[in-house]
Structure formats: C-alpha cells, structure tokens
Backbone:
C-alpha cells in the first residue's frame, strides 16, 4: 500500500511522514500529480537487490539453461516481433 499526501500536508509535519515511510511508501503530490516519493532504506535496498543483472549463457547451470530455453514472451509484447522482420 502507498500513502498519498499533498505537499502542504507533508510540510506541516515532515517528521511524521518520515516515520510513516518506514512502514509504507509515501507519495508527495503537487497539484494532484506525484512530485516526490519517500521510501524507507529497506525499500530502496530491496529495489537495488532486485535489479536485473546480466550473465553469459555459458555461466548458467543446467536448470538455468533449461528455464531460458522454455521461457515464453508475454503476448503483450507480440508487436515487437514485427521489429525483427525484414522489410
């Protein structure tokens, strides 16, 4: 869950919202649009650790290679196939 507050509300008691961000992200809005996100260190760390990393296929174990061979693209990306076809 994410708490959304306006910038004026944040400015009235920033310490309160910092403490709140320890348990759930806080979106600070300006004129109804997101302006800032207040996230705990734990959330930022989890985002960093969840970042994708690349590796060589040769470095995959047998299970990883099998998973790669059996993986299928989500249908929502079918339109990208057209970019690979010759004109």
Residues:
């Amino acid at each position: 869950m994410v708490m959304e507050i306006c910038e004026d509300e944040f400015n009235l008691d920033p310490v309160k919202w910092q403490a709140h961000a320890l348990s759930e992200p806080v979106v600070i809005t300006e004129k109804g649009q997101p302006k800032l996100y207040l996230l705990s260190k734990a959330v930022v760390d989890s985002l960093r650790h969840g970042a994708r990393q690349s590796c060589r296929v040769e470095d995959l174990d047998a299970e990883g290679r099998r998973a790669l061979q059996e993986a299928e693209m989500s249908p929502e990306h079918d339109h990208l196939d057209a970019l690979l076809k010759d004109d």
Notes: Residues 3-46 form a domain with the YefM-like fold fold (CATH 3.40.1620).
